[in-house]
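Researcher: I'm preparing a figure for a lab meeting and need a structural model of a single chain. I don't have an experimental structure, so a prediction will have to do for now. The sequence is pasted below. Please return the structure as tokens so I can convert it later.
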Amino acid sequence: MNSLHLAAMPRARNPASVSKRPAKDYVDRFVAEWMSRRPELKVERLSPLMRVLRLSGVLEKELSAIAREHGITSAQFQVLAALRRHDPVPQSLSELTRVAILTSGSMTSLVDRLEERDLVRRLPHPADRRGVLLELTDVGRSVVDASLGTRIRRLHELADNLSTKELDTLSSLLRKLLLAVEAPQDPGE
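Model: Understood. Here is the structure written out token by token.
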């Protein structure tokens, strides 16, 4: 991310300089509005989940912009990053579809575009004549590594707003919620 973008982003505050009353955020205003109109909904209880949704949306916009700066879309980044995590072992399209949370049809067109740009290469599946494996090219590896570096730096900037203990607690609580909405992952994966 260039320095212009970083300058526009809010900086971490020194915890000692923050007043005891936290600043109001979007969710505080959202809850107050609903409480005044429909108090029976009890949306104040849902504030943490609404903050997760809001943070997700804001971060997705930021991270998509980072991907675009590196000439790829957010979905393309997901596929390239999944391949990079397993590099140099090629991955099946079905596995990439699951990881990237895409339909098989959208995955096919996405892979077509990645292949046209020489970011990935299709290989025949050794155990399935109709199957295809996908591997990163050197160009794809370079693009995903550059984008990943920028993304990780931004996420570290955000994590720096919390202590190690707060990050551990947050991670544990969010894991509990994720397990309530998606199946646990096989530890062998």
